[in-house]
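Predict the 3D structure for this chain.
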Amino acid sequence: MSSLTAEKGQAPEAEILESHKKFIENKETSCKFSSLNEIGISQFEKLGFPGSKHEMFTFVNTKEITSSFSTPSNTEIDKDQVSKFVYSECEKSFLVLVDGKYREDLSVLSGVEGDVKIVVGGDAMDDPEVREYVESSTNSENDVFASINSAFRHDGLLIDVAPKTIMNSPIQILIISGGGDEKTESSRPWVLTKVGALAEAKIIVRYAGLNGNYFVNSVQDYLVGDGAGLELAHIETDNKSARNFSKTRLVLNRDSRFNGSNASYGTELTRCHMEVRLKSPGAEFRFNSVSVLEKTEQVHHYARIYHEAPQCVSAMHFKNIVNDQSRSSVDGTVIVEKDAQLTNSDQLINSLALSDNAHANSKPNLIINADDVKCTHGNTVGQIDEEQLFYLKARGLSESISKTLLTKSFAASIVETIAFPSVRKDVGNTLLKKLEANDD
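Done. Predicted structure below.
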C-alpha cells in the first residue's frame, strides 16, 4: 500500500488538517465535543506527524500508515456477526462500537450488575469531572494519534461505576471495524470508565474486524477512585491486514488497584501506548502482556508509568515470540517523582526469536528522583534453550514437537494470568495454536 503522501501528493499534516476542516464543515461532530475537537487539532499541529527519529516511534515506521481520516461509511452488521466476538461471561453485558460509533441495537445490557450507568456520545461531557479531565488530558497530550482521536471525536461511551458497586461479572467493550476495499478506512473509538470509591469493576476490551484494510485509532481512559479495583483484559483480534493504534490512560487514586492483561494476535501493525499515573499513596498497578507473531506481523508497546505519590507499587511483564520476519518492541519507562518515597517497581521484558530474520527490540528504563525506593528492570532476548531442547529430544520427542512445547510454555505463563476464563481459553486456543508445529 502507498502512503498518504504518495496518494495525495501532500504531507500527512496537510492531509489531516484538510480532512478535519471537512469534518467540521459537515457537522460530523456533536456540539458537546466541539471544544475538544478544537483542542485536539491544536495539539496535533503542535506535535506534528511523527517521523522516523521521533522518540515515541523509535521502532514504528509511521510511513506504513495508510488511512483516510474522514468518518468511514456505515458498516452493515447484524447480531449474529456480533455474537461470535462476545465472550461467554459477557453474553448479557456487552457494548458494541462499530467504526467508532456506539450501536445500542447491537448491545446487550440486561446482565450489567449494580449501579452502573452507560452514557452515550457527547452527553458524557455533561459530567464536570469528565469534561475537566478530558480537556486537560487532551491539552497535555503527547501522542499525536491520540490528539487526532480527540480532533475527530463525534461519539463514544462513558461507563460510570458508582461507589461501592461490586461487579461479579465483566462488561465487554467490543470494538468492531468494518474495513474497506479500495481505501483504508479509519475509526476513532473512545471509552472512558469511571470506577467510584470502594467499587470493583471488571472490563474486557476486544478489537475485531469484519474485513481488512482499516486503521482503528482508539483512546481509552480509566479513572479509578479511592480504594477501588479494576480488572481489565485488552485483547486484539483484528484482521491480519489491519492497523491498530491505541492509547490507554490510567489514573489510580489512594489505595486503588489495577490488574491488567493484554494479548495481541498479530496484525500488519499494532501499537499500544499506555500512560499510568499513580496519584496517591497505596495505589497498585500490575500488567502482563503476550504476543505471538509470524510472517510480517508487528506489535509495539510504549509504556510510561509515573509514580507521583509514596508507597505505590507497579509491575509489568511482557513476553513476545517473533518468527519469520515479524517485529516486536517494548519501550517502557518508570518515572519515580521526588516525593514518591517507598516506591516498589518491577519491569521485565522477555522475547523469544524463532527466526534469524525476526526482530525483538526492548528498551526498559528507570528515571528515579527519590532516594528510598526498590526498583528493578530486566530484559532478555534469545532463542530456544538448546539444553532444554536436547533434554526433550533425548526422551523420544521430535525436534519440532520439542520446540512447540518449549515455545508454548514460554507464552502460557502470561496467558494463565488472564482473569477471565473464556478469554483465557480463547487466547490459549488461538494464540498458542500459532506455535504448533506440523510434525511428520
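The radius of gyration is 21 Å.
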